[in-house]
Amino acid sequence: MPRALIVDDDENTRMALAALIEAEGFSVDLAKDLRDARISLVRQTPDVVLTDLKLPDGTGMDLFKEFDPKVPVELIVMTGFASVDTAVDALRQGAADYLVKPVNIQRLQVILARVPRGSDLRSEIGQLRGELRRYGKFGRMLGNSPAMQTLYDQINRVAPTEATVLLVGESGTGKELAAQSIHDLSLRRKQAFLPVNCGAISPNLIESEMFGHERGSFTGADRQHRGYFERADGGTIFLDEITEMPIELQVKLLRVLESGVFMRVGTNKEIATDVRVVAATNRDPEAAVAEGKLRADLYHRLNVFPLQLPPLRERGKDVELLALSFLEQLNETHNTSKAFVPGAMDALVAHGWPGNVRELRNYVQRAYIMTDSKLIETASVPLQISSAKPATGSSVVVAVGTSLADMDRQLILATLEQCGGVKKRAAEILGISLKTLYNRLEEYGSVARGDSDEDEAANVA
Fold this sequence. Notes:
With about 450 residues, the protein is of the alpha/beta class.
């Protein structure tokens, strides 16, 4: 039977919570202060701790350092003096959730339903994660560099909590994979994970896609539609390229994050949702705020736990690990046994990879296709010449004598790559219409997929 510890200096609160939690199938220990709580923890480690923020001999967050990080315990902070600062501080220190008194019974029941049953099982899971990390695997991500180990530590800390996460990184660094890993390592892993690219949805339809609509609410709405926030109830929604969301919709998103309720288009009926939000951007979010692309209040609400994804050029030997993994996947798919020639990895590690992991994966696939023998040589499949830094101010290097048509092609494709495949933004930067951009891409024979970060599966082991 799972075990809960309730820490509160008010006896009526302790007894009321105990009755509720016991009804959910937990055995319950009670403590009126930190001293009693620590005595209880010595006897047995609970599965979940509900602690008041303010206690006679300290703060409930003082209990966080009492637990072995290898045995995850769900820590829920309660307070009757709620503020954004205290909520953010609790979540950043490792709280799984934050409840305001009087405690919402339905909300608490939802939290308790997600608590894993059995401390031995949780310990085994923690040990398994540690073993995988030694081989460079973590969740759906692959890499053994110090930069990635730091990222794994941060994900491991935030994943079991309910904290909103903001992923910041260049295009192709694996933001969707990081978001998926956070979901997979959280208590929501059995529920839906829905990725949404905010820059790929028509501004006229994005509110309907996010929150749904009622039949007849606008022309063409011939049936009721459930939006992402409704379909992701109990799970995680990944809002990629959050700075591309229309400002007027950002106001409504902020309201959902603060209240947990939304309304479908065409109705005033509020619908409650229990969704964790992970957002991402390849821009500097503070610069986006200054440019009016991202509301400051929404940024601060999303930025509870920011994570910076390192570019591939800062990951050293991870290039070799990833390249071999991609080649292994191709060999397994096509029943072949191709390999890189000795010394090939030196060239790959030395390359700047402005397109990051996505570019590396594409190169390995291109080299695999172009090689008829079993040995792949980088000399026979040249690495594309491009800037080592794809951030703002990057450049395209072309040789003297290159035709204007070819220069045009390189500039368009490089701009599209820098924009993470978001064609609307690329067209704005290039100063051409979206229709013209599509026409050019058709001429170049480019795959017009680019509106999402879904190819970040390049990090999959």
